[in-house]
Amino acid sequence: MSERDDILADRLNVEPVIFKGCSSSELGMIVGVAALIWLPVSLLLAGLMGAVTMGFGLAGVGVVGTVIVMASLFQRLKRGRPDGYYQQQLSIWLSDHGLRHSPFIRRSGSWDIGRTSALPQ
């Protein structure tokens, strides 16, 4: 390595940003969820109008629009915060609503080692 400014992929701590502050895995998640929502809805609407194949075009436009809007929302949500912030917030929210067990210790107060008597001498 001759230059100090070289950026190597094995030295990155987090995934690189590729679109509006989102990494490729975040964009993949957004595209997947948007396709699961838009495809059936648009095919149903187009089928009711008698042009089923037009539903695929509607779904494509809906997915692209959803990606742009959600990427902007993620960009605003992540601005100025540490890596993984919104994943931790989502995990805590799910835990608060009883939907998932949170891996974080959220207890407030004094801690004890659990012993009640002194060790025998």
Could you walk me through the main structural features you see in this protein, from its secondary elements to its overall organization?
The chain is mostly helical and 121 residues long. The chain has a domain at 15-96. It is built from three helices and no strands. The chain has helices at residues 24-49, 54-78, 85-96.
SSE topology sketch:
Elements: H1 24-49, H2 54-78, H3 85-96
Short description:
The chain has 121 residues and is mostly helical. Helices cover 52% and strands 0% of the residues.
> What is the residue-averaged pLDDT?
84
Radius of gyration, taken over Cα atoms and rounded to an integer in Å: 24 Å
Per DSSP, the total helix count is 3
Strand content: under 5%
Unreliable residue stretches: none
User: What's the total number of strands?
Assistant: 0
Assembly state of the chains shown: single chain
- Category by helix and strand content: mainly alpha
